[in-house]
Amino acid sequence: MKVLDKRHRIMALLFGLAILVSLGFWFSRGDVNGPNPAFAARSNFWADRRVAAALESGFEQADKAAELGQTASNADQWDQVVKAWTDAIATLQTIPAQSPERFFAQRKQQEYLQNLAFAQRQANQLSWPNVFPSLGSPVLDEQLRLYLSYLATFGPPDILVIGSSRTIQGINPQILQTDLETQGYPVRVFNFSINGATAQVMNFVLQRLLTSDQLPRLVIWGDGSRAFNSRRVDATFANILKSPGYRAVLAGEKPGFSNRASIPRPPSSINAYGFLPVADVFDPAAFYQTYPRISGRYDGFYNPFGLTGLQLGSLRSLVGYLKSRNIELVYVHLPLSGDYLDDFRLPLDQRFQRFLQTQSQRQGFAVIDLLLQWRQQNAFFADPSHLNQAGAASIAQQLARDPLVLEKLNALE
Fold it and tell me: pTM of this prediction?
């Protein structure tokens, strides 16, 4: 009996030592943040084997991604990091919802998604295509590269939205496209708007920078009086004139993809269709605690003000060029907030309304005037003169149902 008790004690001791050795080996596979997850998944003898295999594979893919990220230095290498994090996330996503391991796996996926986003930013930053010398405007440079990539993917859009910063965040091309498709118009839409763009700038882009086979069948030009004020300094066009890209245009060069090395650039919020979504909602009480309230009388966009001169000449030149290419034009006078349309600006914008009607009759383009429709609806604005996402969606929906737009599309068929 004593021999049996002694044997039991020896077996218990050996079993305890085995557990301690196993635990020591387990923790030795870890790092400063704890045990290695993949090894822990293999060591859990109580788990469902399919779930354990998914956990092990996902954790190993994450280890690979982290390792690749330590040495990645160019876009191709960061693309590999992106793929590894994506694979890790996809593998953990296969764990059934009823599995007890699912909740832990979800939290690991949140961590991996943050790492994936970082890797994507690095890849995007290092893969800016060098298609043309700078044109003196970062947004124009970006929109040009994005549009050329869009052309390579789909060909020319049926509708090209153009304008200034008010348009880049004021007309959502995807919603316009979707709403037209639901009405039986299978069109593609791209927003090629540029911060600070005037009539001169848009005339240069469509007539001098792009080739005729890169143009759409219908142009929707969204903007307001500021783009046609010939008495103010056209800073955007002045920067274009001084740029190496403008000298390249004068030499006959056209933008296009080449074997030139990529240019590192920070990531942007402009989406794949040239649209800049802005979620801010204009609240005058909060807005003017951060920004000064500027009367129209002291606003350089309005004072001095004149609708004859270079901008009018550019409008006539562009309308004539589009007609020569059988391209229809619809001008959309975008809304402004009531807070912006003070006693000084409102009469000038009403003068611009009359100007638009006169020019549309003389030159033969359509006008959709939305200037005053949201004077008391700040929820559609990001600031006093720029629309937000909600406003951009609503404008797109309006345009998709506007008889003038549908008439132009019918004429193209």
Answer: 0.84
User: Using one digit for the tens of pLDDT, what is the confidence trace for 141-188?
Assistant: 999 999 999 999 999 999 999 999 999 999 999 999 999 999 999 999
d(CA 364, CA 317): 13
Nearest to 145 by CA among 11, 270, 39, 238: 270
Nearest-CA neighbor of 270 among 90, 141, 183?
Answer: 141
For residue 190, report the phi and psi dihedrals to the nearest 5 degrees.
-135, 145
DSSP 31: B
135, 138, 142, 145 alpha-carbon torsion, rounded to 10°: 20
Identity of the residue numbered 192: F
Q: What is the DSSP string of 339-394?
A: TTS-TTHHHHHHHHHHHHHHHHHHHT-EEEE-TTTTTT-GGGBSSSS-B-HHHHHH
Tens digit of pLDDT for each residue in 20-79?
444 443 333 444 345 566 555 554 545 578 998 999 999 999 999 999 999 999 989 999
Rounded Cα–Cα distance for residues 81 and 177 (Å): 34
